[in-house]
Amino acid sequence: MTLADLAPGDTAKLAEIDTRDPGVIRLMILGMVEDITVRMENIAIGGDPLEVGFFGSSVSLRKEQARRFKVTRITTGD
Amino acid sequence: MIEAKEVKIPLSGIGIRHKARASIALVGNPNAGKSTLFNRLTGLRQTTANFPGVTVEKHQGTVQLTNNALSLIDLPGIYSLDGNSVDERIAVDVTLGRVTGTQRPSGLLVVIDATHIYQGLYLLEQLLELQLPTMVALTMIDAATANGISIDTTALQIALGGIPIYPVSSITGHGLEELKAGLENITAISTPAIPASWPELSETAQQLSEQLGADWQRIDVIQALLQTHPGFEGKLGQLLGSDTVASLRLRLFGDAPPPAVEARHRYQWVKGVIGNVQEQAPLYTKIGARILRWTNQPWPATALFFAVLLLVFQAVFTWATPMMDAIDRISSGLASWIVTHIGDSAFSSFLADGVIAGVGSVIIFLPQILILFLFIIILEDTGYLARTSFLMDRVMRTVGLSGQSVIPMLSSFACAVPSIMATRVIPDRRDRIATILAAPFMTCSARLPIYALLIAAFVPNQYVGWFNLQGLVLFGLYLMGILGGLGTALLLKSSALKGPKPHFMLALPEFRVPNIQTVAFKLFDRGRIFLKRAGTVIFVVAILVWTLAYFPRMDTTHYVPVTVATDSIDQSVTNNARSAAQMEQSWLGRIGRTIEPVFKPLGWDWRVSSAVVAGFPAREVVVAVMGTIYAVGSDADDQRLSEKLRAAKWPDGKLIFTLPMVLGLLVFYAWCLQCAATLATIRRETNSLRWPLFAWTYMTTIGYVGALIVYQVGSLF
Question: Is the pLDDT of residue B184 over 60?
Fold first, then answer.
């Protein structure tokens, strides 16, 4: 399961990250590294881009990069 | 909320201004409240950023302390020292003292947003490698408390190796005095300890920096190893041999990209620190927060976006009317007072028709411009503008750009100049240039006077359902600008600027209640800029145009006396005819006639043509020029410019301002690039002559062709 598969409101733990995509590295610099808990905040109309929250911050990213983050789901959305 | 304390200043302290001794860089994440703190500390007025990437210029100011003063440099917000965009590179280069002509700052004031301490500590950790005296200002402390976050500053200070931390609230001013007292001795603070987040890198960097000598600071070695600075990277390879560097890298990073490894190590450490110092209550429990979350969801947010846009255009027309009427009464009253008291002379015509009619016809739009800016500033300061880039990413993708181009394009509704500078946050050069060329299409505030004048004169002020027709036409013109911009981006991104699909990632700020003081400051600033232009550029043009229109004086002896019964002629008709005849043979009339053939196919007579040509350096000048031309060319001073336009006729008696002609003129102004300041900014930002020349030719051509088609097709019916 990847970050792109989460539904709004789901929380998950980031597992393995594929760092071959330069866009993914930018996201890691914003704090999306292994073992942190994220929450899928919003999905834009048309399914892309996504808004992910962690440690009080919100970051917007595209599905293409979200697929590079493997996740373990913790809870499903409200 | 904590009220600002009353501060008693000792008599001896008044009037003493110290000279800045050392320079301190203000560094922090975008949107961390840096600019507000900067304003608070230096007292300098400047625009502040409320969403990532707007403070682009290097702002410098002096902080007056009790015993000395410091020079403070405000830098664009950054997340790391990697320098991914132009904007980030500027901040990094200044912080690291790599900009020629500037020295490495003698100390750092790192601004950390208490609600975003996670990313703030990451940047701080990288900055500690600089080994400069460092202090932390922990901002938004009240927002953190309101969000259920409590931070143990003592524990944080211990975790950070003892560097001074000052919780402040830039809004209430709480904690500022303590921060200032701390700044007094900033250069005397001992260099900070390096956090134990990545011992291997630290040791390697220390060792190499000692081995390579004074030219190599720790941070230079680190950036060379991490491959985040091409200059140092190349030099390190030459000095140590590429094999040695490769094996060092393999040991430190394995086969992963170095910045990814860096992020893993440093955030691991950050998480440890946060775990010790921060307690977070569950968020979104309050009803207000729930509403906000709901409006952030895609459909409500999109609906809200269009509702807000429509409200803005309605407000621009309906709210401004009373104030505009007042200004109009004052200026026409002044003009007729001058004529009655000074008499009908060249001097009174100069004041009434040149200065008052010219400058006054532009100043009358001040209320509308202020209303527009009030909305834009509030949208900016609530963080809503940044939110739209998330909503609009999908749309931007269809033209080959990303949501990151949305903020520059939306801020173009105010003015293209700062918006072109705001494109510096866009990492890819091709995407950036495409955005720069699309931005001038957006309806800027200088187009508003022209639109408002023509719409008020020729679009009936009636309601279509709930909506004012004039507001709807204005909305349509804004849409045309948007379509022109997006079309241009699409054209360029599929031809000259073809490149890989852009990434889109952006930290989204949460909703914030705008600070009234900041909003008022920005609004005041905007009004000042507008009036300054009216008082300088437009004033000069109005005088020039008046001179050209008033001279040479018509030789009245050429008039053939006609004997008619005097009571059968309306006096004003003959006066108007004489004014028009004077205008025809004036210098302006002669110049206008020469250029008239170029614009005749668009239905413009020589008066409109010369006004448009005069408007090339700054488009709002066109209104001033028309104001002067029609004031000199008509005898009635008490008429509004719009009434004079409605009455303007060709020599054969047909009306000049017909509906197809007005619509064509509006299309011309929606697309044409009549702004020297924008051209100069494009030149500076693209560092080439090619792009401004292209932009000017391209936009003028499509403006002309658009107006031609509208007029010719419209005249068929």
Answer: yes
Contacts of B503 in chain A (CB under 8 A): 22-23, 26, 62, 65
Determine the residue type at B598.
V
The domains of chain B are located at 11-188
Torsion of CA B233, B238, B241, B244, to 10 degrees: -20
Output the CA angle B341-B542-B654, nearest 5 degrees.
Answer: 90
Question: What mean pLDDT is predicted for residues B357-362?
Answer: 78
- Among chain B, residues having any CB pair with chain A shorter than 8 Å are 79-80, 82, 84, 115-119, 122, 147, 149, 256-257, 259-260, 263-264, 267-268, 270-271, 274, 280, 283, 296-299, 302, 389-391, 393-394, 403, 503-510
Separation of alpha carbons B189 and B135, rounded Å: 9
Checking if the pLDDT of B654 tops 60, the result is yes
Q: What's the gap in Å between the CA of A55 and the closest CA on chain B? A: 6
Asked if B27 contacts B78 with a C-beta cutoff of 8 angstroms, the reply is yes
Q: Which residue has the higher pLDDT, B108 or B190?
A: B108
Residue to mutate among A21, A25, A35, A38, with most B CBs inside 10 A, is A25
Nearest to B394 among A8, A34, A44 (CB): A44
What integer pLDDT is reported at residue B592 of this predicted model? 85
Confidence at residue B365, expressed as pLDDT on a 0 to 100 scale:
78
Cα(A18)–Cα(A69) distance, integer angstroms: 7
Per the CB < 8 Å rule, is B268 touching A26? no
CATH T-level assignment (fold) for domain B11-188 = Rossmann fold (3.40.50)
Is omega for the bond preceding A49 within 30 degrees of 0, making it cis? yes
In this complex, the residue of A8, A17, A46 whose CB is nearest that of residue B394 is A46
What ipTM goes with this model? Answer: 0.96
> Which pLDDT does position B638 carry in this prediction?
58
Chain B residues lying within 8 Å of A29, measured CB to CB: 79-80, 82, 122, 259, 263
User: Is the Cβ–Cβ distance between A45 and B394 less than 8 Å?
Assistant: yes
Domain extent at residue A37: 3-75
Q: In the beta sheet, which residues pair with residue A72?
A: A13
Q: In the structure, what pLDDT confidence band is assigned to residue B493 with cuts at 50, 70 and 90?
A: very high
Strand-pair category, B107-113 with B134-139: parallel
B115 contacts on A by Cβ (under 8 Å): 56
How many separate domains does chain A show? Answer: 1
Cα dihedral sign, B124-B130-B131-B133: negative
| Per-residue pLDDT at B426 exceeds 80 | yes
Please tell me whether the peptide bond between B552 and the residue prior to it is cis, using omega within 30 degrees of 0.
yes
Q: Which residue of A has its CA nearest to B299?
A: A45
Is pLDDT of B451 > 80? yes
> What pLDDT, on a 0 to 100 scale, did the predictor assign at position B284?
45
Burial B224-255 (b: 16+ CB within 10 A, else e): bbbbbbeebeebbeebbeeeebeeebeebbee
The gap from C-alpha B287 to its chain's centroid, in whole angstroms, comes to 34
Mean pLDDT across chain B: 82
Contacts 24+ apart (CB under 8 A), B708-713: B708/B601, B708/B602, B708/B664, B710/B660, B710/B663, B710/B664, B710/B667, B711/B601, B711/B602, B711/B603, B711/B660, B711/B661, B711/B663, B711/B664, B712/B601, B713/B660
**Is residue B287 over pLDDT 70?**
no
* Most confident listed range (B322-326, B528-532, B556-560): B322-326
Give the residue carrying structure tokens 């594929």. Answer: A18
pLDDT tens per residue across span B79-99: 998 877 777 777 888 888 777
Give the pLDDT confidence of B193-204 residue by residue, as tens digits: 888 889 889 889
Tens digit of each residue's pLDDT (9 = 90 or more) over A18-40: 999 888 999 999 999 999 999 99
* Domain of residue A18, CATH code: 2.30.30.90
Residue whose C-alpha is closest to residue B503's, from A27, A8, A28: A27
